[in-house]
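B., you asked whether I could sanity-check this one before it goes into the benchmark set. Here's the sequence:
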Amino acid sequence: MSQPQNNKRHLITVTNPRSPVSEAFRALRTNIDFSSVDEQIQVLMVTSSGPEEGKSTVTANLAAAYAQSDKKVVLIDADLRKPTGHRTFSLSNRYGLSSLLSQQAEMSNVIQESGVPNLSVITSGPIPPNPAEMLASNRMSHVLQELRQQFDIILVDTPPLLAVTDAQLMASKSDGVIMVVSYGKVKRDIAAKAKGNLDRVGAKMLGVVLNNVKRKASEGYYYYYYGN
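And here's what the prediction gave me:
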């Protein structure tokens, strides 16, 4: 049984758009838009150095923030190992990105409405035996190219950088990369190693989101963006 109320609580930009956290996501959106003067940022990848840093929650809220600015947005759950996007939006995961890449489904079969205006979602689909090869494939490049024609912003949620090579493979196909770092949890050298992995594939690093920074007891946690 789906539990939309429990899952949608992660989308604070939707449930409480006036909160300081939602404002931080709008600021992140604005900073990304201004981060590249000469080239348009259309395919944006979000990753982290390790697990449980909040990258999927950041990606979903950033996607909603873009959708609220009247952009046509699609969020792709490209974490083909431990996907969460279908649970966040209470969607079926019978077909998704893996189905599309293995040519078991058409594009029209895997794009789902999120329940948030202007925001569509492509869930991961069934977990495949070869996720890295799928993301590195020419088929993945063609999928992104097709989505560029349909959407203004394409947000891609990938596995952590230091766990597997998936994020590095996707970074080379993206216009820009945001790395989520859990404040006080990840050591500087670990984050630097993760960034080094991106540098080696020529990824365009747009900045870092510090997650779980406590501002005031009354405000809870928020997200902070800074550039290189």
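One thing to flag: The chain has eleven helices and eight strands. Otherwise nothing jumped out at me.
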